[in-house]
Design a protein that fits this description.
Layout: H1 2-17, H2 21-42, H3 46-54, E1 63-72, E2 75-81, E3 87-89, E4 92-94, H4 101-113, E5 115-127, E6 141-153, E7 161-167, H5 183-194, E8 201-202
Parallel strand pairs: 1-6, 5-8
Antiparallel strand pairs: 1-2, 1-4, 2-3, 2-7, 5-6
Helix pairs in contact: 1-2, 2-3
Length: 203
C-alpha cells in the first residue's frame, strides 16, 4: 500500500504541475499502474479506483478525518455505521473544504447522532497506517480525535447510523468499525478522561 500510494502521489502531483504533453501521459500511466496494483490486492475495479483518483488534484497531501470523542457519566458515545455492516464507531468523517477542524467535528457529530457539541480538546492525531486500521485505504489519512461536550440535541438515527449508545470501558462492543476506530484507541481515550492533563497523542 505504501508503494501504491507513493506512485499515485507522483502521478497526481505530476499531472498538477506538468505542462509537457508527453510527461503528462507518463504521469497518467503511473496512475493507471498504481490503480491496477490496488485492484489486485483489494478486488476494486480499476475504473472505480481511477474515478476516485480523478477527484483528487493539486499537490498530493494526506486526507483529514475528524472524530468526536464524547463521554457521559463515564461512558463513551458510539454509533453503528450502516455503511460498514452496522459496526460501532466514534462519530465523525471527512473534514470539508473551508471548515475549521472543530467545526467539521461538531457538524459530523450532529449529522450522525443528533447531539450538539462543543469541541474542547484535541486528544490525538494519528497516521491511519500506524494504528492497525483495516482494511487499507488508498490515501494516506490523518485521523483527528477531539474531546467534545454535549450542549444540546438528542439521539437521532438516520440513513448513516442505525443505533446510538454509551459504553463503559469494560463493555466496548466487539464489532467495531476498525476502518474508523480501534479498541486500543478507545481505551486510550478513557485514559485521557481519567487524566485530563495528558498531552495530545500524535503519530
Amino acid at each position: 500500500m505504501k508503494w501504491i500510494r507513493e506512485l499515485q502521489a507522483i502521478s497526481q502531483t505530476g499531472l498538477h504541475f506538468g505542462e509537457d504533453r508527453y510527461n503528462r501521459e507518463r504521469y497518467e500511466q503511473i496512475g493507471k499502474i498504481a490503480a491496477e496494483m490496488l485492484s489486485e490486492i483489494s478486488n476494486l475495479p480499476v475504473d472505480e479506483i481511477l474515478n476516485f483518483n480523478k477527484a483528487e488534484f493539486g499537490y498530493a497531501t494526506p486526507k483529514v478525518d475528524v472524530r468526536g470523542v464524547i463521554f457521559r457519566t463515564g461512558k463513551i458515545l458510539l454509533a453503528r455505521e450502516v455503511a460498514d455492516a452496522d459496526r460501532w464507531t466514534i462519530p465523525g468523517g471527512w473534514a470539508d473544504v473551508n471548515e475549521a477542524p472543530s467545526v467539521a467535528t461538531a457538524r459530523e457529530v450532529r449529522e450522525e447522532t443528533g447531539f450538539d457539541v462543543s469541541v474542547k480538546k484535541l486528544l490525538a492525531v494519528y497516521d491511519r497506517d500506524t494504528q492497525g486500521h483495516q482494511p487499507p485505504h488508498p490515501c494516506t489519512v490523518y485521523k483527528h480525535f477531539f474531546l467534545c461536550e454535549i450542549t444540546g440535541g438528542k439521539p437521532q438515527l438516520n440513513c448513516e447510523i442505525s443505533e446510538i449508545d454509551f459504553f463503559d470501558e469494560n463493555n466496548i462492543p466487539p464489532d467495531l468499525s476498525t476502518a474508523r476506530v480501534t479498541e486500543k484507541q478507545i481505551h486510550r481515550f478513557f485514559e485521557h478522561l481519567k487524566n485530563p492533563d495528558m498531552p495530545t497523542d500524535f503519530d
